[in-house]
Design goal:
The structure is a homodimer. Chain A is α+β, with helices and mostly antiparallel strands. Chain A folds into 2 domains: 174 residues, 3-Layer(aba) Sandwich (Creatine Amidinohydrolase, Chain A, domain 1); 292 residues, Alpha-Beta Complex (Creatine Amidinohydrolase). Helix content of chain A is 33%, strand content 13%. The first copy, chain A, contains 15 helices and 17 strands. The first copy, chain A, has a 6-stranded mixed beta sheet, with helices on both faces. In chain A, helix 7 crosses helix 8 and helix 9 packs antiparallel against helix 10. In chain A, 52% of the residues are buried. At the A-B interface, helix 3 and helix 8 of A face helix 3, helix 8 and helix 13 of B. Chains A, B: Its EC number is 3.4.13.9. Chains A, B: Homodimer.
Amino acid sequence: MASSLSPPEVPMELHRLNRDKLLNSLRDHLSISSRPNHGFVFLQGGEERTRYCTDHTELFRQESYFAYLFGVREPGFYGALDVASGNSILFVPRLPADYAVWLGEIKPLSYFKERYMVSMVYYTDEITKVLHEQYQGQGRKPLLYLLHGLNTDSNNYSKPAEFEGIEKFEMDMNTLHPILTECRVLKSDLELALIQFANDISSEAHVEVMRNAKVGMKEYQLESMFLHHTYMFGGCRHCSYTCICATGDNSAVLHYGHAAAPNDRTLQDGDMALLDMGAEFHFYGSDITNSFPVNGKFTRDQSLIYNAVLDAHNAVISSMKPGVCWVDMHKLAEKIILEALKKGGLLIGDINAMISERLGAMFMPHGLGHLLGIDTHDPGGYLKGAERPKELGLRSLRTSRELLEGMVITVEPGCYFIDAVLVPAMENSKTSRFFDHEQISRFRGFGGVRIESDVYVTSRGCVNMTKCPREIKDIEAVMAGAAWPIKRTPIPFENGESR
Amino acid sequence: MASSLSPPEVPMELHRLNRDKLLNSLRDHLSISSRPNHGFVFLQGGEERTRYCTDHTELFRQESYFAYLFGVREPGFYGALDVASGNSILFVPRLPADYAVWLGEIKPLSYFKERYMVSMVYYTDEITKVLHEQYQGQGRKPLLYLLHGLNTDSNNYSKPAEFEGIEKFEMDMNTLHPILTECRVLKSDLELALIQFANDISSEAHVEVMRNAKVGMKEYQLESMFLHHTYMFGGCRHCSYTCICATGDNSAVLHYGHAAAPNDRTLQDGDMALLDMGAEFHFYGSDITNSFPVNGKFTRDQSLIYNAVLDAHNAVISSMKPGVCWVDMHKLAEKIILEALKKGGLLIGDINAMISERLGAMFMPHGLGHLLGIDTHDPGGYLKGAERPKELGLRSLRTSRELLEGMVITVEPGCYFIDAVLVPAMENSKTSRFFDHEQISRFRGFGGVRIESDVYVTSRGCVNMTKCPREIKDIEAVMAGAAWPIKRTPIPFENGESR
């Protein structure tokens, strides 16, 4: 196992630019609504957690909004942006003396100031004092813009910062969340560079796994190879999400791989594998799915389903550009898959009639794709007040927005044979007539195919950041041992330039 | 990379035996205290968690007491033991229909009954009804023995079960925790077999890492190799704790490797490496440390410190048997290390005088070892009412108990050069005279050495379950490419026998 890649230097300037972007957006908003231009954006970073009642410490991963603005890897921080001056302030926990013995050097405040490129650094027990001193507004109590808002994927609310003395401040809980979320939706060049590296190393790891997958292995061995490649050669300690290593019938379980379905099946001759795995590099993620036959050769049926999904994947990417509605892209993918299934003899009848009965959702119950960034399901898919589509399939979409330049979005059409979905549809009087029941029955136990790339929207079109082999001939060649070199996309900051 | 090992079948009988053991202990206790022999032991399993406000699901790992009694890998369960009848009852969450599409087959109750070898299985919304029906006591309200007690490593309390309708029960919060904890302290043969496998695969992975470590690598690449080996060949998805891959000066940071000190140093010629890494197999853990020079050859100074620690490690293991007090073992290790440092010219003066000034704690600030099992720091180190030693070093001990047959305990002496500890000790008028300041100064930046094995106490002595090369000549040979085959210890249940 080897790699042509190595982890790039992380540009902390990225987070300074993120902060500037937020301050500009917030000031614009305040100016439009004729509100005074003062107060502090104030966020609480994540805390380290122990497992249940024990002292087993779980590996800390920073909260994503805090990571976006400050890039801090340590737990227990707070951060503030002074809206008037633009100053950035980090508040660092005061560590006990024996930290040096157990957990490492107690770094001086100057270390954090330099590392995270902020204007000032203080201890967390100084928050009230410092913010009162720095405040340039008129009121008796300084104003804090706290983060409170809905995550439309989880339906959970972000937790606004809490600290001792917070009652000595005015609090605004509504302004910050939508503005900061929208900043995250549109990626800067430096952000794109990190997502690109996460894609490069993950693409290479996928190729490595593809080449080493063998009948008789366990699914989790594929996961282990992926994790090792991305950590060993990419320095990626975290994954964007738990690896989905589904083979055979398991590939019809969309989020397979969790603790109750832990990638523990043995690979069998004739299986399709569906591997949905992506590494995270300095908080920025990737999200990539490959589907291939574990024995290295596609059968006719496997080719039929695979190419249906590949055609959908390619057609969407060809159509993507600013202004295109994501719901239309989902429908385009559905239509291409239905057409292929009809051509392959699995479906019968008029495609438009199938579409109006939402037949596409019987084969692809999930949405076509989602925003990607510091979270795998990056926030901002539904703007405040936007409603989810109600139709079957479409209602699973994590965004219904029009594409904008700078968005990174996954394109992940799939075609699955899920008994819990297909059996009712085949029995339903409205949809039964579309199925060739005999042909479909051949695909019982087939599982499913998903092809997923990470795509960013440019001013005139889009760029696929994922570099895996996609054509059947390329996959078969790679699995037979052919080379598939992955060239690292040059990263702007490495030459000291910004795109 | 290859392995002679493969994951054994997991015997669910192990958890049935754990339940029987608890019931016997609890009944004995009730009988001695003339309390009625009825009611239910009632535990809540762990819940899956998402990261902050997002839908990013963290990989679930069962709560350890629940894992001990039921071996359940899925989240959201409850479990009961009927004290009178001995019946075991699992309560399973009722999953929504679309679980089948997203997360996998919705398994029937019979699946869980068979898999987990329990008497009955119901849904979690039936807890109140079922327990009232099953109750064989006299009171109007059935009695629940809930888990509430102090974890003496974390100082946190276990969280007693909560469910809708709990007010229809009497609750006993005091009886269960000490009895169940003591059951966990003394391992059964089947438990030992799993800890042995975790040791076998982790020992092999340590050898693999040792052999592949090279100057110029990053510390996290050693972690990646370890994780890969234990998952790929041992099926170990979890580690017992975050890997500590410390080289150079970092090896003097006892719990290095966490998010704020993330194994990111580059290995340099002349460094010692201290690798503290252990895999977990079906909840049962291992905890192993190796120390070696990254260039494969010990210098004279490195040999001096290494052999001091190895002698302490070996002397302790030679002395361990039931009835031996763990505090005495700690003192034995300290004494051997001090003697070696004196012989090596770093210390001057009378060993007993050093001991009474607690000089050992200046070189080994942590405890000699801790109970090991489903938690890395397994509970039960201090029985209720037992006080921690107050002396420097000794107060870091996670247990001060006498050894009992069936305990598994780590033996992990260490010798570190920690500025934050040594500088004050060398300036202190009481301890300054013991140091040869010039000699000691040679070890600034040396880091530290730890050697850690997992040992179980037998009726007449003890057995070292860890199989890594320990002698300098063996380590140098392995690093130069010599074979170090690890034979799997036969596991009793594989022949259908129990030891």
